[in-house]
Amino acid sequence: MEKSEIKGFIAKRVAKELKDGDVVNLGIGLPTMVPAYLPEGVHVVLQSENGIIGTGAKPTADDAEPSYKTDAGGAPAQAAKFGCYIDSATSFGFIRGGHVNATILGGLEVDQEGSLSNWIIPGKKMPGMGGAMDLLVGAKTVIVAMEHTAKGKPKILKKCTLPYTAVHCITKIITEMCVMEVTENGLVMTEINPEFTVDDVKAATEADFTVAEDLKDMTA
Amino acid sequence: MAKIISVEEAVAMIPDGATIMFGGFLGCGSAHHIIEALANSGKKDFTIIGNDCGMATGPNGEEFYGMAKLVHNHQVKHVIATHVGMTPDVATQSMVDKTLTVDLIPQGSLAEMIRAAGAGLGGVLTPTGVGTIVEDSPFCLGKQTIDGKDYLLMKPVHADVAVVNAHMIDKFGNMWYKGTTRNFNTVMATAADLVIAEADNLVEIGDIAPENVVTSGAFVNYIVDGGKL
């Protein structure tokens, strides 16, 4: 697979996880590509943690009011006609309270215990966790959408080495190679990209995982 | 009833070393005129509390948008925030110059910790941050297990001064917010000894219907007619 195709490929597969009417919070980067791949008839309610339930279409340059209406990255945004604006305490009550069906976000590292590290590389930069820790703890389904490796090195580890964003929080990991579910018995690969073999995935993964008996084609 | 004052009078009420909460999310919904005047005042040693520290560059090309001005001017000695990545000065001053310290707190926890301070609660029990370095935060008082689930006990967050902003404020101090500008303004208006609210539009009592008031003027001590952004 061409490098340029990877993100779109992952976003397309992630889109199949969403059901009509789901309330969804999207992380920055790859996750924002997911709505473009939603099957016909599937509409989701997007939430922006800075204060929108029911985020609408991105405003045109003429309609944008970035002093008043933004998304969680500070870019111009607006509520849909059915949406509403809320304050931060209400927004995170909504998130922690289990009213978000799915959050989709990227990861620096994930591990076989279902834990995720994606907010800081100590000593390098000082970003901050923002709303990520709350989203991972509160959303009913946590989907990590990321490239399987970084510069050839596995990102799916036995144990994360970077500070955790949250522990035991991941539902599913979707990469360009496969789909893995986090279960009580550890990671289970349930789908594979037919461009790769099980051994390819094993070579690119540090974590222990089992292969589902009915391993499916993730492109089907 | 809140008293209407000038931006200069507002700045005069904020001493060196004050702990100040600023509403806003990456500058959206921040009291830009008061912050600008504070940045020009030369006052220093502030502890600032906010979702973030604004942005190095604002959405319309503004240089040092929102709280970023105060950090850039070295007027801040301590930051309590959820995310400071859009203001590289924070990393430079804390990691290289060592002139600034930072406490990072999850966004939902910080909102609720401020709400708790304003609502007379002794803390917040939240599942957010369990198993992470948040457990080592000076704001975390320990872990509790309730019905088999782990929670962190987080302290309330109160300030000397809250500097908040709304699109429309009437002369009683009642506030109505536009778009996503509510963010931390609503909780901060309840959680400081002194609450100064900047109006983009100062309107007459009655212009905001009681049903549409989001923050009661009863929380607000002083109003600054900031004017249009």
Number of strands of chain A: 15
Overall mean pLDDT score of chain A? 96
Cα separation of the termini of chain A? 16 Å
The class by helix and strand makeup of chain B works out as: alpha/beta
Kindly state the number of beta strands of chain B: 14
Q: What percent strand of chain A?
A: 25-35%
Sheet with most strands of chain A: 10 strands, mixed
Instruction: Say what oligomer this is.
Output: heterodimer
Q: Using only CA atoms, what is the Rg of chain A?
A: 18 Å
Poorly predicted runs of chain A are none
| Largest β-sheet summary of chain B | 9 strands, mixed
Task: List low-confidence stretches of chain B.
Answer: none
Tell me the Rg of chain B in angstroms.
17 Å
Determine the most extensive contact between two protein chains.
A-B, 48 and 53 residues
Tell me what you see in this structure.
Chain A has 4 helices and 15 strands. Chain A is an alpha/beta fold and 220 residues long. In chain A, the strands form 3 sheets. Chain A has a 10-stranded mixed beta sheet with strand order 4-3-2-1-5-8-12-13-14-15. A 3-stranded mixed beta sheet of chain A has the order 7-6-11, with no helix packed on it. Chain A has a two-stranded antiparallel sheet with strand order 9-10. In chain A, a hairpin with a 4-residue loop joins strand 6 and strand 7 (116-117). The longest helix of chain A has 13 residues, at 3-15. Chain A is globular. Chain B has 229 residues and is an alpha/beta fold. Helix content of chain B is 20%, strand content 32%. In chain B, strands 1, 2, 3, 6, 7, 11, 12, 13 and 14 form a 9-stranded mixed beta sheet that branches. In chain B, strands 8-10-9 form a 3-stranded antiparallel beta sheet. In chain B, a hairpin with a 2-residue loop joins strand 9 and strand 10. The radius of gyration of chain B is 17 Å and the shape is globular. The chains are: A alpha/beta (220), B alpha/beta (229). At the A-B interface, helix 2 and helix 3 of A face helix 4, helix 5 and helix 6 of B.
